[in-house]
Amino acid sequence: MTSGNDRATKLITAVDRRRFLQVGGMGLAGAILAACGGSGGTTTTQAPGTTGAPGTTAAGTTMAAADTTTAAAGLQSNLDSVTIGEWNPNYASQWSYQLADALGYMADYGIETSDYQLSDEYIAGLLGSSLDIARGDTNVLIGSAFTSGEPITMIALYRTSEWQIMGVREGIETPEDLIGGTITGGQLEGRNTVVLRNILRSLGLDPDEDMEFVAMTGASDARLQALLAGTVDAANVFPRHRAGLEEAGGHFMYEELEPAPQEGFSAMGPWLEENGETASAWLAAELKARQWLLDRDNKDEAYQLMIDRGFEIPQEFIDQYEVELEQFSPDGGFEVSEMDTFVELLVEVGDLPEGIEWRDHFDPTYLWAAQDELGLPRRPDSL
Asked: What is the pLDDT of residue 350?
């Protein structure tokens, strides 16, 4: 259950320029083939004047680094401009690297300009060389590398934990009240369904006998609406749904923070070979901003800087400050055993192909250089 806003896409704000990567009508396989074959070209276009969901912005923007400067950095980028691919318009998904710009850390490491491209087709962008670095889901990044045979290489993690939450409708007070009812995690064969089955077991219920799993299209907001309408009795939801659910008489029956190295950054192998200094410097700036963000004394400024960059962040999102931070890797690293377990589950539910070895698609070299630069222990210290 990936955190972040999964509802709408764009919020138009006053920025220097706005560009969106648009690869129309292609699934992942089509995008890979088009990018590798040089056809189905990715284009950029002026963003339309529409307004998106709270917490989002038009991330397809170019921003020069802030005037703020800090102590001279040891690492230095060999490129003065980097293009970043991002699929999620939610502020929290972009928080660390946007702050690295706003706080002047990118400039300290020699990166004067950052070009942000918002698109679901970030794999095509990497393969087509229109993106230098992309943030995405672990299963998409390593799965695309395995399936395509292309050197898509993960270089760091972003979120390494997730909130596993089961919300219930009004009138459901105990696990026993769920017996004979319906429950949804979206797709029947997806990871959310596996998580819900485990939650039911932890509550003393038999997922095969006590509840009926029903398929549902749409994302987590659709599942919340189903709970509010009483069309299902239980569903997996996100922390931001608490207020709306409780106002309607429902509640979170189960909520636990669990290890899940679910998101990270990737680049292409040849680009890394040519621009390793840039990869290390970019990560050092991003991790320095992440460390700054994790200092609770910086909370108010951290939100204001994002608002200044065009993100609309309602108070109910700000109230989730601790919930968001608890999901982040503090140093870009992860526990190898947790990645092993996570990948095994993804293979089990069909989100990754059989026979994949994630270590073949992760290079910690640049993360280690960034961690060394910041005086952080190397994590993981080996794969």
From this structure: 87
Cα 315 from Cα 226, distance rounded (Å): 24
Query: H-helix or E-strand containing 210?
Result: none
Q: Round to whole Å and give the CA distance between 176 and 144.
A: 42
Residues 22-52 as b/e (b if ≥16 CB within 10 A, e otherwise) read ebeebebeebbbbbeeeebebebeebeeeeb
- H/E stretch holding 268 reads strand 263-268
Render 114-135 in DSSP notation, one character per residue: EEEEE-S-HHHHHHTTS-SEEE
Q: How far apart are CA 157 and CA 240, in angstroms?
A: 23
How many Cα atoms occupy the beta-carbon half-sphere of 197 within 13 Å?
15
pLDDT bracket for residue 255 (50, 70, 90): very high
What SS3 state is found at 204? Answer: coil
Q: Where in the chain is the domain with CATH 3.40.190.10?
A: 20-160+261-373, 162-259
The fourth-level CATH superfamily of domain 20-160+261-373 is Periplasmic binding protein-like II (3.40.190.10)
pLDDT tens digit sequence for 299-357: 999 999 999 999 999 888 898 899 999 999 999 999 999 999 999 999 988 899 999 99
Strands ordered across the beta sheet of 251-259: 211-213, 181-184, 234-236, 161-168, 251-259
Query: What interhelical angle do 191-202 and 336-348 show, nearest 10?
Result: 110
- Per DSSP, the residues of 58-75 read ---BEEEPPS---SPPS-
Measured between alpha carbons, how far is 308 from 166 in angstroms, rounded to an integer? 35
3-state secondary structure 227-256: HHHCCCCEEECCHHHHHHHHHCCCEEEEEE
Burial pattern 284-323, b for ≥16 Cβ within 10 A else e, equals: bbbbbbbebbeeeeeeeebbebbeebbbbbeeebeebbeb
Q: Which CATH architecture has domain 162-259?
A: 3-Layer(aba) Sandwich (3.40)
211-213 vs 181-184, strand pairing mode: parallel
Single out the residue of 294, 274, 292, 290 nearest to residue 366, CA to CA: 274
**pTM exceeds 0.70 for this model:** yes
Among 215, 218, 220, CA closest to 238: 220
